[in-house]
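DM from R.C. (forwarded with permission)

"hey, sorry to bug you on a friday — could you get me a structure for this? deadline for the figure draft is monday and I only need the backbone to look sensible"
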Amino acid sequence: MRLISWGRGVWGLAGLLVVSAAAHAQATWPDRPVRVIVPFPASGATDLVARVVTQRVAADLGQQLVVDNKPGAGGTIGTAEAAKAQPDGYTLLLTTSSTHAISPHLMPKLAYDARKDFVPVAHVADAPSVVLVTNSLPVKTVAELIAYGKANPGKLNYATSGNGTIVHLNTAAFMAQAGVEMTHIPYKGTALAIPDLIAGQTHVLFDSLPTGMPHAKAGRLRALAVTSEKRSTLAPELPTMAESGLPGYSSVTWFGVYLPAGAPPALVDKVHKAFAKAVAAPEVAEQLAKLGVEPAAPRTPAQFGALVQADSNRWAAVIKQHKIVVE
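My reply, with the result:
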């Protein structure tokens, strides 16, 4: 009986030590450098956003945040690695819609579960897209584009950056709501699609603001609308899709921070506050604007999680309806 009692005492003491260590880690976080996994290549949009925001977080906390690029398979390789990390606050994931709202519906054999393996922490930024058309197309508004497409079935085609990308999904959602059919012409990136759009070989492209708007401002292409719910501060002259006759249409690429599953609520709150403070800084907004990205509106971790789930549900429906697959 004494042995059993002693054993229980040891296990109880061990449990108290674990709880005490976790509480200490939360209280002192961060007392050493923090690794921030970005599952996309260096110098890409997500990497640049991460470096702008983490630089400010590091300055506020007085501790280094090290961006670690782990690209591959549409961001899923680095995301899978982050899922296996200890939930102690010293490995974070800064990612986009791609890994948590899109890839789970395109790649059923992912090495991670977007919902079960992560805890949403902070919504950092949003990147709306712009609807571009070739100048030879006789339309100046989204409503005119829809009318032209219905009057000329089979004559329009649209460029994308590849099957299953946000560019593809944005256009598929537009066609479904507008009742317009267009032919898909996939490219390996929108940069390769732009010359053909300018030449009139393709007709429509839902591109990111920083890459698409310079061509519109130079008169090489025509911009019709932005895909965000509200007008973009980066192109305030352009109407939203809702203002253009498609109520409810809204799509942005969001950027957000996650912790591995199992992270204590107090730690989640601490990390959330650190990133929320950084995103609210005027100089961060200014730097993000240069990237064609807008700071996210204030949201709690739970609200960010709800936004991601709604996004995931929407893209799941679009992918199923249009039978989109990644080859």
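R.C.: lifesaver. Residues 1-6, 14-22 have pLDDT under 50 and may be disordered.
me: no worries. The CA atoms of residues 52 and 284 lie 7 Å apart.
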